[in-house]
Amino acid sequence: MKNILAILILTLLVATTGCKKSSSSGGPTIKYLRNDNNRSTFTSSNKLDTILSAGIQGQWLIIVGTNLKNTIDVFFNGRRAAYLNVALNSDTTVITRIPTLTFSSLNPDSLNTLRVVTSTGEVTVKFPIAVGSAPTFTGVSNEYAKANDSVIINGTNLNGLTRLNYAGTTITDFKEILTGRQVRFKLPSSFNNTGKLSFSTVRGTINTYFNINDPLTGMVCNFDDVNIFDNATAVISSDNSLFPSNLANFCRTQFDNTTSKFTDPGRSINLIAANLLHVDSIANGNIANYAYKFEAFVKQPWSTGYWQIVLGTGTYSARFNPYTAGVPFTTTGWTTFTIPLNTFRTNNGAGTAATRLNQLFGTTGSIAHAWRFVEGVPVVANFDMAVDNIRIVRVR
User: 27-130 and 136-207: same fold?
Assistant: First the structure.
């Protein structure tokens, strides 16, 4: 009788152990996420039963994985999910909803993450989450950045990037700023490409009209192989120690408060006549689609006076003074600046704006132009800036 009882107890223990093995006892895993057909009104390309590569605020979705039965919490970008009914959990699925997110209040280390917590462990995966509007693009910190340089993309609604391609180079290691106005990354050591900038969120895709790191298109003067620099008070230099991360020639403008005229040392850049814009563009192009671009490196704090960029005979000019009143301006390196052509004005840059390209370039596009520094009050105490890659390009 004792032997029979022992056999029954052993059999019960084995059966109990077998049941435990079939339950959700290990740490959770996430295989993929899909849209919740029954609740979601999300209707982008990532809809219905397709596997989601990213999401938007308020979206209903289903987490698919293993050991999910005992899920007790779900976090998107560090914030608790807007919905979790543990009674609906299964071992392989969890129904949840992305909360409304105030990106400026998030922990930067939690951006673009999905975290699932169960009673037996937790798992975190990358899952970009976009705001409710399409991204916009306003510029790149330096369109001629070199290998290993840091780059900043500026715009709006840049949270939740699912793809970033910079001049033909796929960038996977990037950091989004909480405000959604910047994305930062470092170029790989092998970078030496020319091409478009392209990036996406689930709300839209941006492709630049112009090329990044383009040595040819629209180039007016790079002070090297495309060089129309004339007799001026600024000087050409190739000393990379003065303005690092420029591997060739640039134009340096340097002066102090002992001089005041643009004919004094360092206060002007003269560029001889050249074809600044193709005749077809002048005849058929929309002035709003074109811009005057260049890179500059401002070493000394600048808060008064301005550069007047004068085209042709001087009827139209633009003022370059990137500082904000009362806030001295410098750059930490080479920075791209863009002046739309429809902001070139009469009356020394303060009058009526140009509305047609032929007002700026005539019918042939061949004109001279110059930079002149105009003093403000008080006068600049110490000015030191370099300029490179002057170009006129279509930007949209």
Answer: yes
**Domain boundaries 27-130, corresponding CATH code:** 2.60.40.10
Q: Where do we find the tokens 């303060």?
A: 350
The pTM for the full model equals 0.82
CATH for the stretch 136-207: 2.60.40.10
The C-alpha atoms of residue 210 and residue 189 are separated, in whole angstroms, by 23
SS3 115: strand
Show me where the domains of the chain are located.
Answer: 27-130, 136-207, 219-394
pLDDT tens digit sequence for 66-81: 999 999 999 999 999 9
Distance of CA 385 to CAs 234, 250, 301, Å? 10, 10, 10
Does residue 162 contact residue 52 with C-beta atoms inside 8 Å? no
User: What would the CATH number be for the domain defined by 219-394?
Assistant: 2.60.120.260
| Tokens encoding 339 | 């002046």
Residues lower than pLDDT 70 in the chain = 1-25, 39-49, 132
Q: Report CA Rg, the chain.
A: 30
Instruction: Name residues whose C-beta falls within 8 Å of residue 182's C-beta, 6 or more positions apart in sequence.
Output: 152, 153, 154, 155, 158, 176
